Here is the input.
Amino acid sequence: MLTTQKRKFALALMSGKNKTASAIAAGYSAKTARVKGSQLAKDPEVLAFIARKQ
Here is the structure.
């Protein structure tokens, strides 16, 4: 199940933001955004959501 934060991340990524900026836009802290953005970009749920929306 795609969480609200993961959905926000995916939408931000699709809008052209980089992974770090997308993680911050999704509500993750600036301290952890770089790592979280990288993790989320590989998340199967996030990838499936992006594939469905394109």
Q: What stands out?
A: The chain has one domain: 4-53. The first helix runs from residue 4 to 14. Residues 4-53 form a domain with the Arc Repressor Mutant, subunit A fold (CATH 1.10.10.1400).
